[in-house]
Amino acid sequence: MTQPLSSHSHAFFPNQILEGFESARSSGPISSSTSDRPSMLDSVNDIGTLLDKRRQRISALSNQLYEEMRAYVDLGTSLDQHRIVDIPRPTLLSLPDELLIEIFSYLTGDGNHHLHPFLLVNKKLYRLVTSRSSLWTHFNISVDTKFDVAKGLSTSWIMASLERAKDLLLTITIRCDTIPSPSEYAALLVQEATASIPDVYQISRLDIDAIRLSNMYYESWDHYMEKFQQFLSLIRAITGPNGALMHRWKSAFIPLPDDDTVPIDEIIELFVGDTPHLETLQVKSTNGGETEEYPLEETYVFPNLSSIRTLVIDTIFDLRELSINFTQIRFLEIYLADRSPLLDAFNSCNSLQELTLQCYSSEPLGHYKLQLLSLKLLRLTGFMECIEEVTFLTPPSTKLELLGELDQRIPSAHASVVAWFLPEFGRDIRCDYIHSGLLQIATEVIGVRKLFVSLDGTWLGEMKLVREMMKVCLVERPNLNAIDLMISGKLIETFDHASDS
User: What's the per-residue H, E or C state across 123-143?
Assistant: First the structure.
C-alpha cells in the first residue's frame, strides 16, 4: 500500500521543492468548477462524498510526486557514481616532481643503489631521478652473510653515481662488520655442499660433513679472497686511486669486524686521501674494544681532519698521528689503550658537548686536568683505574654515565646527575660492591644530587640486599637527594630521604 506523503522522510527531497510543496498544501483546497461548489449542494451527504473524492485526489497526487522525487534522487546518485568511476586514480607518475624527489630521498638514506629499480620504469622517471644530484650522495657498501654485495651495487654503478652527484659532498658507509671471517665462509660452503648430497650410501650427515670439511676449508680460501677483492674494488671506486676522491667525503661510517682473521688492514690502507670537508668519522670495532691493533705503522690514513665535528675512533689509530682540529669538535669517542692519545689536547675542545672514553689501558695514564666548559655528557666505560688520576673540570649541569665495574677509585668530575650501568651479576660482583661503588660516586663526583643505578635482570634474586644498600648510601651521603633503581631499563623504585625516614 502506498504511504501518504506525510509519512515519508524529507531526506529524499531538495529543500526548495519540499518548501514549495508544503506551501501548496497549506494554501487551501484546490479550485474546482462551479458545479461542485458547496453552495450548489442540497444535502450534507453530497458534501461528504465530495470531500472524500478531493482527499483521494490529493493522496494520489502526493504519492505521484513522491515517486517522481525518489526517481530524481536515484538518477542523481547514479550520476555521481559514474563520475567517481570515471575519475582516474593517482599513480606514482602522476605525483608532482617535488613530491617524488622527497619520496626517493628517504630511499637513498641507506644507499643510492636502492634507486636502481626505479630507473627501469620509464624514461620520465629515469630523467627525473638521474637529474637530481641530491639523490646520489649516499653510498652504502656492504655484503650479506654469503659475502655477496647488494643487488645493483657495482663499480660501474658507483662511478655513475659519483658523476650524477656532481660537486655535492658525499655520505659514505662501508660496513666492514658484515664481512664473514674465512672460517665462517668455509663453514657456509660446507653447509651448502652437504645440503645437496643425498644419503644414497646411508652415510650419516656428520660423516658427510667431516669428509667435505677437510677439503672445503682449503678450497674456500681462494673463493673467499675472490669475494674480498670484489669488495675492495667497490671501496677503491669510492676512494679513487690513492684516495683522490676522498676530498668529496662529508661523512664516513666504517664499523669494523670483531674477528681479526678478516684482512681488514687491506681496506684501511685505502683511506689515505685528503679529507678537508670530512665532518663525521666513525671507525669502530663491534666487540667493545677488544680487537688487536691493526698493522698500520707505515700507513698514513685520514691525514686531514681539520673540519671534523664528530669523531668515533677505535684502537687502529693513534690520535697523535691524526691532524685533528680539537677546537671545533663536538662529539668525541676514543679508545684509551697503552698507546693513548695526548689528553692535554682535550683542553682545547671548547665546543665539545659529548665525550666517551673507553678505558682499557693496563696502567694509569697519569695526572691530567681536563677543562671541558661546554660538556653536557661524559661517558666512561672499562677499567677506571687507568684514568683514576684524571680530573674532569666540567659544568655542574653535566651528566655522567659510568659503564662497568667500579672496583677502583673513579676519576674526579663535576656532575649533578650520575647514571651507573652495572654488568651482569656474577661471582666476582657482590651486593656490597654496589655499596662501595655508590660511596665512590657520592665522594668523587662534585655536586652530584641524583643517582640512576641500572642493573641487569640477573640481579633480581638479590633485590632485598640491593634495596638495603641504597638506603644505607643515602644515610651515609646526605648530599644525595635521590637514587633511582632501574632493572633492564625500567624504573623499579626511587629512594630518597623522605622514604628512608
Answer: HHHHHHHHHCHHHHCEEEECE
Helix (H) / strand (E) element for 15: namely helix 15-26
Adjacent-strand bridge partners of 149: 143
CA–CA dist 322, 336 (Å, integer): 15
| pTM as predicted | 0.71
Q: Would you say the C-alpha torsion 340, 342, 347, 351 has a positive or negative sign?
A: negative
Instruction: Give CA separation, 42 vs 37, 55, 501, in Å.
Output: 11, 21, 109
C-alpha cell at 342: 695526548
Q: Could you give phi then psi for residue 269, rounded to 5 degrees?
A: -65, -10
Helix (H) or strand (E) holding 138: strand 138-141
Question: How far is it, in rounded angstroms, from Cα 139 to Cα 162?
Answer: 10
What's the pLDDT at 282?
Answer: 92
Alpha-carbon dihedral of residues 316, 319, 324, 329, nearest 10 degrees?
90
Residues in contact with 221: Cβ distance below 8 Å, sequence separation at least 6, in sequence order:
182, 186
Distance CA 154, CA 162 (A): 12
What span, in angstroms and rounded, lies between the C-alpha atoms of 263 and 260? 7
Q: What integer pLDDT is reported at residue 215 of this predicted model?
A: 57
CB proximity list for 177: less than 8 A, separation 6 or greater? 255, 256, 257, 258, 285, 286
**pLDDT block averages, 10 residues each, the chain of length 501:** 43 48 49 48 68 82 80 75 60 77 77 78 82 89 85 87 92 91 81 61 52 59 88 94 94 88 87 92 68 49 89 70 80 74 73 88 78 91 81 90 76 88 62 77 86 80 79 82 86 78 53
Number of residues written out for the chain:
501
- Of residues 499, 451, 497, 491, the one with CA closest to residue 474: 497
Q: How far apart are CA 61 and CA 327, in angstroms?
A: 94
